[in-house]
Amino acid sequence: MLAEQFEAMRASVERKRPSAPSPRPAAALTGAAILTLVACVSPPPRPAAPALAEAAPLSETGQGQGWPSREWWREFHDTTLDALIDGALTNAPDLAAATARFDSARAGVAAARAAAGVQTGLSTDASRQRLSDHGLFPPDLLGFHWYSQFDLGLQASYAFDWWGRQRAAIAAALGTARAAQAEREAAALALASSTAEIYFGWQSDMAERELAVQRAEVAGERLRIAAARIAAHVDREDAYERAELAQSEARDRVDELTASAQLRQVALAALEGVAPADLPALAARSLPALHAELPADASLDLIARRPDIVAARARVAAALQHVEVARDDFLPDLSLSALLGLSSQQIGTLLQPGSFAPTVSAALHVPLFGAGTLRAELARSEAGLADNVANYRAAVLGAAREVNTQLLARRRWIEQTQLRSAQLAAAGALNDSAARRMQQGITDARAGLDTQDELLAIQQAQLQTRAAALQSELELIRALGGGYRREAQP
To answer: Which residues contact 131 (CB under 8 A, 6 or more apart)?
Structure first.
Protein backbone atom coordinates (compact mmCIF):
# COMPACT_ATOMS: atom_id res chain seq x y z
CA MET A 1 0.00 0.00 0.00
CA LEU A 2 2.80 2.43 0.93
CA ALA A 3 4.72 1.70 -2.28
CA GLU A 4 1.60 2.33 -4.38
CA GLN A 5 1.05 5.70 -2.68
CA PHE A 6 4.64 6.76 -3.33
CA GLU A 7 4.38 5.73 -6.99
CA ALA A 8 1.19 7.73 -7.44
CA MET A 9 2.78 10.82 -5.99
CA ARG A 10 5.86 10.42 -8.21
CA ALA A 11 3.67 10.09 -11.34
CA SER A 12 1.74 13.22 -10.36
CA VAL A 13 4.94 15.21 -9.94
CA GLU A 14 6.31 13.93 -13.26
CA ARG A 15 3.19 15.04 -15.13
CA LYS A 16 3.54 18.57 -13.81
CA ARG A 17 7.28 18.80 -14.57
CA PRO A 18 8.26 20.44 -17.90
CA SER A 19 9.98 18.24 -20.43
CA ALA A 20 13.81 18.23 -20.12
CA PRO A 21 16.10 18.69 -23.11
CA SER A 22 18.07 15.80 -24.49
CA PRO A 23 20.94 14.91 -22.09
CA ARG A 24 23.55 14.44 -24.79
CA PRO A 25 24.01 18.13 -25.80
CA ALA A 26 24.00 19.12 -22.11
CA ALA A 27 26.66 16.52 -21.28
CA ALA A 28 28.79 17.66 -24.19
CA LEU A 29 28.57 21.28 -23.10
CA THR A 30 29.39 20.33 -19.50
CA GLY A 31 32.43 18.31 -20.58
CA ALA A 32 33.70 21.14 -22.77
CA ALA A 33 33.29 23.62 -19.91
CA ILE A 34 35.16 21.34 -17.52
CA LEU A 35 38.04 20.87 -19.97
CA THR A 36 38.26 24.63 -20.51
CA LEU A 37 38.39 25.35 -16.79
CA VAL A 38 40.88 22.56 -16.13
CA ALA A 39 43.16 24.06 -18.75
CA CYS A 40 43.11 27.30 -16.75
CA VAL A 41 44.38 25.42 -13.63
CA SER A 42 47.45 23.90 -15.23
CA PRO A 43 49.92 22.30 -12.76
CA PRO A 44 53.37 23.86 -12.24
CA PRO A 45 56.44 21.99 -13.46
CA ARG A 46 57.64 19.07 -11.38
CA PRO A 47 60.17 20.20 -8.71
CA ALA A 48 63.81 19.22 -9.13
CA ALA A 49 65.82 17.78 -6.25
CA PRO A 50 68.02 20.51 -4.73
CA ALA A 51 71.79 20.24 -5.04
CA LEU A 52 73.10 19.61 -1.53
CA ALA A 53 76.73 20.51 -0.96
CA GLU A 54 78.66 18.00 1.12
CA ALA A 55 81.12 18.74 3.94
CA ALA A 56 84.70 19.78 3.28
CA PRO A 57 87.43 17.14 3.74
CA LEU A 58 89.16 16.94 7.09
CA SER A 59 92.62 18.35 7.60
CA GLU A 60 94.18 15.28 9.21
CA THR A 61 94.20 11.55 8.47
CA GLY A 62 95.86 8.47 9.91
CA GLN A 63 95.47 4.71 10.14
CA GLY A 64 92.74 2.41 11.46
CA GLN A 65 89.14 1.48 10.78
CA GLY A 66 85.78 2.04 12.40
CA TRP A 67 86.64 5.04 14.56
CA PRO A 68 84.72 6.19 16.39
CA SER A 69 82.52 3.14 16.91
CA ARG A 70 78.82 3.40 17.66
CA GLU A 71 79.36 2.67 21.37
CA TRP A 72 82.62 4.58 21.39
CA TRP A 73 82.75 4.95 25.18
CA ARG A 74 83.35 1.20 25.63
CA GLU A 75 86.79 1.64 24.04
CA PHE A 76 87.91 3.32 27.29
CA HIS A 77 87.44 -0.07 29.06
CA ASP A 78 85.88 1.53 32.14
CA THR A 79 82.93 -0.43 33.53
CA THR A 80 81.85 2.51 35.70
CA LEU A 81 81.64 4.78 32.65
CA ASP A 82 79.69 2.08 30.78
CA ALA A 83 77.18 1.83 33.63
CA LEU A 84 76.78 5.61 33.84
CA ILE A 85 76.13 6.04 30.13
CA ASP A 86 73.79 3.05 29.98
CA GLY A 87 71.82 4.47 32.89
CA ALA A 88 71.68 7.95 31.34
CA LEU A 89 70.43 6.56 28.03
CA THR A 90 67.75 4.59 29.87
CA ASN A 91 66.42 7.28 32.20
CA ALA A 92 66.96 10.59 30.39
CA PRO A 93 63.69 12.53 29.79
CA ASP A 94 65.13 14.28 26.72
CA LEU A 95 65.85 10.95 25.09
CA ALA A 96 62.39 9.68 26.02
CA ALA A 97 60.86 12.74 24.34
CA ALA A 98 62.98 12.15 21.21
CA THR A 99 61.88 8.51 21.17
CA ALA A 100 58.23 9.58 21.45
CA ARG A 101 58.67 11.91 18.46
CA PHE A 102 60.14 9.03 16.46
CA ASP A 103 57.26 6.73 17.41
CA SER A 104 54.80 9.43 16.34
CA ALA A 105 56.57 9.87 13.00
CA ARG A 106 56.60 6.11 12.45
CA ALA A 107 52.87 6.00 13.10
CA GLY A 108 52.52 8.74 10.48
CA VAL A 109 54.23 6.46 7.95
CA ALA A 110 51.75 3.68 8.73
CA ALA A 111 48.84 6.10 8.36
CA ALA A 112 50.10 7.37 4.99
CA ARG A 113 50.51 3.81 3.71
CA ALA A 114 47.04 2.85 4.92
CA ALA A 115 45.47 5.88 3.23
CA ALA A 116 46.89 4.80 -0.13
CA GLY A 117 45.04 1.46 -0.15
CA VAL A 118 41.43 0.37 -0.36
CA GLN A 119 39.32 1.91 2.39
CA THR A 120 36.60 -0.31 3.84
CA GLY A 121 34.01 0.24 6.53
CA LEU A 122 30.96 -1.37 8.05
CA SER A 123 28.04 0.86 8.97
CA THR A 124 24.70 0.24 10.59
CA ASP A 125 21.87 2.64 11.29
CA ALA A 126 18.45 2.52 12.92
CA SER A 127 16.09 5.49 13.05
CA ARG A 128 12.47 6.37 13.74
CA GLN A 129 11.01 9.63 12.40
CA ARG A 130 7.74 11.50 12.43
CA LEU A 131 6.58 13.11 9.18
CA SER A 132 5.68 16.78 9.29
CA ASP A 133 2.10 17.70 8.61
CA HIS A 134 3.36 20.41 6.27
CA GLY A 135 6.15 18.50 4.53
CA LEU A 136 6.62 17.27 0.97
CA PHE A 137 4.74 14.04 1.75
CA PRO A 138 1.68 14.88 3.91
CA PRO A 139 0.88 12.17 6.48
CA ASP A 140 -2.80 12.31 5.56
CA LEU A 141 -1.94 11.23 2.04
CA LEU A 142 0.46 8.50 3.18
CA GLY A 143 -1.76 7.27 5.94
CA PHE A 144 0.81 7.39 8.77
CA HIS A 145 2.88 9.89 10.82
CA TRP A 146 5.72 7.70 12.10
CA TYR A 147 7.98 5.33 10.21
CA SER A 148 11.18 3.37 10.94
CA GLN A 149 14.30 2.79 8.85
CA PHE A 150 17.02 0.12 9.32
CA ASP A 151 20.23 0.06 7.24
CA LEU A 152 23.26 -2.25 7.19
CA GLY A 153 26.11 -1.80 4.72
CA LEU A 154 29.68 -2.72 3.84
CA GLN A 155 31.41 0.12 1.98
CA ALA A 156 34.68 0.12 0.04
CA SER A 157 36.44 2.93 -1.82
CA TYR A 158 39.65 3.35 -3.77
CA ALA A 159 41.34 6.48 -5.12
CA PHE A 160 43.53 6.07 -8.19
CA ASP A 161 47.04 7.45 -7.68
CA TRP A 162 47.53 8.54 -11.28
CA TRP A 163 49.97 11.35 -10.55
CA GLY A 164 51.89 9.84 -7.63
CA ARG A 165 50.35 12.04 -4.93
CA GLN A 166 49.85 9.17 -2.50
CA ARG A 167 53.37 7.86 -3.14
CA ALA A 168 54.74 11.34 -2.46
CA ALA A 169 52.77 11.54 0.79
CA ILE A 170 54.22 8.20 1.91
CA ALA A 171 57.75 9.34 0.98
CA ALA A 172 57.25 12.58 2.93
CA ALA A 173 56.14 10.63 6.00
CA LEU A 174 59.16 8.35 5.64
CA GLY A 175 61.48 11.36 5.48
CA THR A 176 59.93 12.79 8.63
CA ALA A 177 60.34 9.45 10.41
CA ARG A 178 63.99 9.17 9.37
CA ALA A 179 64.62 12.70 10.62
CA ALA A 180 63.00 11.88 13.97
CA GLN A 181 65.07 8.71 14.18
CA ALA A 182 68.29 10.63 13.57
CA GLU A 183 67.30 13.33 16.07
CA ARG A 184 66.85 10.61 18.68
CA GLU A 185 70.39 9.44 17.94
CA ALA A 186 71.64 13.02 18.21
CA ALA A 187 70.07 13.32 21.66
CA ALA A 188 71.68 10.03 22.71
CA LEU A 189 75.08 11.18 21.42
CA ALA A 190 74.88 14.46 23.31
CA LEU A 191 73.86 12.63 26.47
CA ALA A 192 76.63 10.02 26.22
CA SER A 193 79.35 12.56 25.47
CA SER A 194 78.22 14.85 28.29
CA THR A 195 78.29 11.92 30.71
CA ALA A 196 81.80 10.96 29.61
CA GLU A 197 83.05 14.55 29.88
CA ILE A 198 81.71 14.96 33.42
CA TYR A 199 82.99 11.54 34.51
CA PHE A 200 86.52 12.13 33.22
CA GLY A 201 86.38 15.64 34.71
CA TRP A 202 85.68 14.02 38.07
CA GLN A 203 88.64 11.67 37.57
CA SER A 204 90.84 14.66 36.69
CA ASP A 205 89.68 16.56 39.80
CA MET A 206 90.43 13.61 42.06
CA ALA A 207 93.90 13.05 40.60
CA GLU A 208 94.77 16.74 40.77
CA ARG A 209 93.41 16.94 44.31
CA GLU A 210 95.85 14.24 45.35
CA LEU A 211 98.71 16.31 43.97
CA ALA A 212 97.29 19.44 45.64
CA VAL A 213 97.24 17.65 49.00
CA GLN A 214 100.93 16.78 48.54
CA ARG A 215 101.71 20.38 47.69
CA ALA A 216 99.85 21.50 50.82
CA GLU A 217 101.99 19.11 52.86
CA VAL A 218 105.15 20.55 51.28
CA ALA A 219 103.90 24.06 52.10
CA GLY A 220 103.26 22.97 55.70
CA GLU A 221 106.80 21.65 55.98
CA ARG A 222 108.11 24.95 54.60
CA LEU A 223 106.06 26.80 57.19
CA ARG A 224 107.51 24.62 59.97
CA ILE A 225 111.07 25.29 58.77
CA ALA A 226 110.38 29.03 58.47
CA ALA A 227 109.05 29.13 62.03
CA ALA A 228 112.13 27.30 63.30
CA ARG A 229 114.50 29.62 61.45
CA ILE A 230 112.71 32.70 62.76
CA ALA A 231 112.89 31.29 66.28
CA ALA A 232 116.62 30.83 65.75
CA HIS A 233 116.86 34.42 64.49
CA VAL A 234 118.11 33.17 61.10
CA ASP A 235 115.23 34.55 58.97
CA ARG A 236 112.94 37.54 59.25
CA GLU A 237 109.21 37.50 59.97
CA ASP A 238 108.27 38.02 56.31
CA ALA A 239 109.68 34.56 55.47
CA TYR A 240 107.09 33.01 57.76
CA GLU A 241 104.31 35.12 56.23
CA ARG A 242 105.27 34.04 52.71
CA ALA A 243 105.31 30.39 53.79
CA GLU A 244 101.95 30.81 55.51
CA LEU A 245 100.47 32.40 52.37
CA ALA A 246 101.78 29.53 50.22
CA GLN A 247 100.20 27.00 52.58
CA SER A 248 96.86 28.86 52.50
CA GLU A 249 96.87 28.90 48.70
CA ALA A 250 97.66 25.17 48.61
CA ARG A 251 94.78 24.39 50.97
CA ASP A 252 92.41 26.60 48.96
CA ARG A 253 93.29 24.60 45.86
CA VAL A 254 92.47 21.37 47.67
CA ASP A 255 89.09 22.80 48.69
CA GLU A 256 88.38 24.02 45.13
CA LEU A 257 89.09 20.59 43.66
CA THR A 258 86.99 18.90 46.34
CA ALA A 259 84.04 21.18 45.58
CA SER A 260 84.50 20.69 41.81
CA ALA A 261 84.45 16.90 42.20
CA GLN A 262 81.28 17.11 44.30
CA LEU A 263 79.56 19.34 41.73
CA ARG A 264 80.47 16.88 38.99
CA GLN A 265 78.84 14.10 41.01
CA VAL A 266 75.67 16.20 41.25
CA ALA A 267 75.77 16.75 37.48
CA LEU A 268 76.22 13.01 36.87
CA ALA A 269 73.25 12.27 39.13
CA ALA A 270 71.13 14.74 37.16
CA LEU A 271 72.03 13.00 33.91
CA GLU A 272 71.25 9.61 35.48
CA GLY A 273 67.96 10.86 36.91
CA VAL A 274 68.89 9.72 40.43
CA ALA A 275 70.07 11.27 43.70
CA PRO A 276 73.86 11.71 44.12
CA ALA A 277 73.84 9.04 46.83
CA ASP A 278 72.37 6.52 44.34
CA LEU A 279 75.18 6.88 41.80
CA PRO A 280 77.40 3.87 41.12
CA ALA A 281 80.51 3.85 43.29
CA LEU A 282 83.11 6.12 41.70
CA ALA A 283 86.75 5.14 42.12
CA ALA A 284 89.67 7.38 41.17
CA ARG A 285 91.78 6.01 38.34
CA SER A 286 94.22 7.29 35.77
CA LEU A 287 92.90 9.13 32.74
CA PRO A 288 92.81 6.96 29.60
CA ALA A 289 95.45 7.33 26.93
CA LEU A 290 94.58 9.19 23.74
CA HIS A 291 94.68 7.83 20.21
CA ALA A 292 98.10 8.49 18.75
CA GLU A 293 96.60 9.56 15.42
CA LEU A 294 93.32 9.69 13.60
CA PRO A 295 92.38 6.67 11.46
CA ALA A 296 91.96 6.91 7.72
CA ASP A 297 88.16 6.78 7.82
CA ALA A 298 87.92 9.93 9.94
CA SER A 299 86.87 11.83 6.85
CA LEU A 300 83.83 13.04 4.96
CA ASP A 301 81.99 9.75 5.55
CA LEU A 302 81.95 10.31 9.30
CA ILE A 303 80.63 13.87 8.94
CA ALA A 304 77.94 12.72 6.52
CA ARG A 305 76.57 10.25 9.07
CA ARG A 306 76.38 12.75 11.92
CA PRO A 307 72.84 12.33 13.23
CA ASP A 308 72.00 16.02 12.96
CA ILE A 309 73.11 16.08 9.31
CA VAL A 310 71.21 12.87 8.58
CA ALA A 311 68.13 14.46 10.14
CA ALA A 312 68.58 17.67 8.13
CA ARG A 313 68.95 15.72 4.88
CA ALA A 314 65.87 13.61 5.67
CA ARG A 315 63.85 16.77 6.27
CA VAL A 316 64.95 18.10 2.88
CA ALA A 317 63.73 14.88 1.26
CA ALA A 318 60.42 15.11 3.12
CA ALA A 319 59.97 18.78 2.15
CA LEU A 320 60.61 17.92 -1.51
CA GLN A 321 57.83 15.34 -1.37
CA HIS A 322 55.49 17.88 0.25
CA VAL A 323 56.11 20.13 -2.77
CA GLU A 324 55.23 17.19 -5.01
CA VAL A 325 51.99 16.63 -3.09
CA ALA A 326 51.08 20.32 -3.43
CA ARG A 327 51.79 20.16 -7.16
CA ASP A 328 49.62 17.08 -7.63
CA ASP A 329 46.70 18.89 -6.00
CA PHE A 330 46.39 20.83 -9.28
CA LEU A 331 45.53 17.60 -11.13
CA PRO A 332 42.18 15.77 -11.21
CA ASP A 333 41.71 12.55 -9.29
CA LEU A 334 39.27 9.70 -9.68
CA SER A 335 37.86 7.53 -6.91
CA LEU A 336 35.53 4.55 -6.96
CA SER A 337 33.22 3.46 -4.16
CA ALA A 338 30.85 0.56 -3.70
CA LEU A 339 28.22 -0.16 -1.05
CA LEU A 340 26.77 -3.58 -0.38
CA GLY A 341 23.79 -2.47 1.67
CA LEU A 342 20.57 -3.71 3.18
CA SER A 343 17.69 -1.34 3.85
CA SER A 344 14.27 -1.99 5.31
CA GLN A 345 11.53 -0.27 7.29
CA GLN A 346 11.23 -3.32 9.52
CA ILE A 347 14.13 -4.97 11.26
CA GLY A 348 12.58 -8.38 10.73
CA THR A 349 12.89 -8.08 6.94
CA LEU A 350 16.36 -6.42 6.92
CA LEU A 351 18.21 -9.63 6.05
CA GLN A 352 15.79 -10.78 3.37
CA PRO A 353 16.94 -10.73 -0.31
CA GLY A 354 14.43 -8.02 -1.16
CA SER A 355 16.21 -5.59 1.21
CA PHE A 356 19.45 -5.78 -0.80
CA ALA A 357 20.33 -2.22 -2.03
CA PRO A 358 23.82 -2.15 -3.63
CA THR A 359 25.38 1.08 -4.87
CA VAL A 360 28.39 1.71 -7.13
CA SER A 361 29.65 5.22 -7.78
CA ALA A 362 32.60 7.01 -9.34
CA ALA A 363 33.76 10.49 -8.40
CA LEU A 364 36.00 12.75 -10.44
CA HIS A 365 37.48 15.66 -8.52
CA VAL A 366 38.65 18.48 -10.77
CA PRO A 367 40.12 21.68 -9.28
CA LEU A 368 38.39 24.56 -11.10
CA PHE A 369 38.10 27.70 -9.02
CA GLY A 370 40.67 27.04 -6.24
CA ALA A 371 43.80 27.92 -8.19
CA GLY A 372 44.68 30.74 -5.78
CA THR A 373 44.51 28.44 -2.76
CA LEU A 374 46.51 25.75 -4.55
CA ARG A 375 49.24 28.18 -5.59
CA ALA A 376 49.44 29.56 -2.03
CA GLU A 377 49.84 26.04 -0.65
CA LEU A 378 52.48 25.26 -3.27
CA ALA A 379 54.36 28.45 -2.40
CA ARG A 380 54.24 27.51 1.29
CA SER A 381 55.66 24.06 0.62
CA GLU A 382 58.38 25.50 -1.62
CA ALA A 383 59.34 27.96 1.12
CA GLY A 384 59.53 25.05 3.55
CA LEU A 385 61.83 23.21 1.14
CA ALA A 386 64.11 26.25 0.81
CA ASP A 387 64.24 26.57 4.60
CA ASN A 388 65.19 22.91 5.06
CA VAL A 389 67.87 23.16 2.35
CA ALA A 390 69.36 26.20 4.08
CA ASN A 391 69.33 24.37 7.43
CA TYR A 392 71.07 21.37 5.88
CA ARG A 393 73.81 23.47 4.33
CA ALA A 394 74.31 25.33 7.61
CA ALA A 395 74.56 22.01 9.45
CA VAL A 396 77.19 20.70 7.01
CA LEU A 397 79.28 23.85 7.23
CA GLY A 398 78.95 23.91 11.01
CA ALA A 399 80.00 20.26 11.26
CA ALA A 400 83.07 20.82 9.10
CA ARG A 401 84.00 23.85 11.20
CA GLU A 402 83.54 21.95 14.47
CA VAL A 403 85.60 18.98 13.34
CA ASN A 404 88.48 21.02 11.98
CA THR A 405 88.48 23.20 15.12
CA GLN A 406 88.71 20.12 17.31
CA LEU A 407 91.43 18.66 15.10
CA LEU A 408 93.54 21.79 15.62
CA ALA A 409 92.82 21.78 19.36
CA ARG A 410 93.63 18.08 19.58
CA ARG A 411 96.95 18.59 17.82
CA ARG A 412 97.81 21.51 20.10
CA TRP A 413 97.03 19.56 23.26
CA ILE A 414 99.03 16.54 22.08
CA GLU A 415 102.03 18.79 21.45
CA GLN A 416 101.50 20.40 24.86
CA THR A 417 101.37 16.97 26.49
CA GLN A 418 104.69 16.04 24.91
CA LEU A 419 106.20 19.31 26.17
CA ARG A 420 104.89 18.64 29.68
CA SER A 421 106.48 15.19 29.60
CA ALA A 422 109.86 16.73 28.82
CA GLN A 423 109.41 19.27 31.61
CA LEU A 424 108.39 16.51 34.01
CA ALA A 425 111.52 14.51 33.20
CA ALA A 426 113.72 17.56 33.83
CA ALA A 427 111.94 18.39 37.09
CA GLY A 428 112.28 14.79 38.23
CA ALA A 429 116.02 14.89 37.60
CA LEU A 430 116.34 18.14 39.57
CA ASN A 431 114.37 16.67 42.46
CA ASP A 432 116.58 13.58 42.56
CA SER A 433 119.70 15.74 42.50
CA ALA A 434 118.42 17.92 45.35
CA ALA A 435 117.59 14.80 47.39
CA ARG A 436 121.14 13.46 46.91
CA ARG A 437 122.70 16.79 47.91
CA MET A 438 120.52 16.92 51.01
CA GLN A 439 121.56 13.39 51.99
CA GLN A 440 125.20 14.40 51.55
CA GLY A 441 124.66 17.45 53.76
CA ILE A 442 125.50 19.90 51.01
CA THR A 443 122.11 21.70 51.21
CA ASP A 444 119.31 21.88 53.75
CA ALA A 445 115.74 20.60 53.39
CA ARG A 446 114.46 23.79 51.80
CA ALA A 447 116.14 23.06 48.47
CA GLY A 448 114.58 19.60 48.39
CA LEU A 449 111.16 21.03 49.23
CA ASP A 450 111.52 23.61 46.43
CA THR A 451 112.32 20.99 43.80
CA GLN A 452 109.60 18.68 45.14
CA ASP A 453 107.01 21.46 44.93
CA GLU A 454 108.17 22.31 41.42
CA LEU A 455 107.85 18.66 40.41
CA LEU A 456 104.31 18.49 41.85
CA ALA A 457 103.37 21.73 40.04
CA ILE A 458 104.54 20.31 36.70
CA GLN A 459 102.65 17.07 37.41
CA GLN A 460 99.52 19.15 38.00
CA ALA A 461 100.09 21.05 34.76
CA GLN A 462 100.62 17.80 32.89
CA LEU A 463 97.42 16.36 34.37
CA GLN A 464 95.47 19.46 33.35
CA THR A 465 96.89 19.20 29.84
CA ARG A 466 95.94 15.52 29.59
CA ALA A 467 92.44 16.32 30.83
CA ALA A 468 92.11 19.10 28.25
CA ALA A 469 93.37 16.78 25.49
CA LEU A 470 90.87 14.10 26.54
CA GLN A 471 88.11 16.72 26.55
CA SER A 472 89.12 17.73 23.03
CA GLU A 473 89.00 14.12 21.89
CA LEU A 474 85.51 13.66 23.33
CA GLU A 475 84.38 16.80 21.53
CA LEU A 476 85.95 15.51 18.32
CA ILE A 477 84.09 12.21 18.69
CA ARG A 478 80.85 14.16 19.15
CA ALA A 479 81.67 16.39 16.17
CA LEU A 480 82.25 13.29 14.03
CA GLY A 481 78.88 11.88 14.99
CA GLY A 482 79.98 9.41 17.64
CA GLY A 483 80.14 6.56 15.15
CA TYR A 484 76.48 7.00 14.20
CA ARG A 485 75.29 4.74 11.39
CA ARG A 486 71.91 4.73 9.74
CA GLU A 487 69.52 2.07 10.97
CA ALA A 488 66.96 0.14 8.98
CA GLN A 489 64.15 2.21 7.51
CA PRO A 490 61.09 2.60 9.76
So the answer is: 137, 138, 139, 142, 144, 145, 146, 147
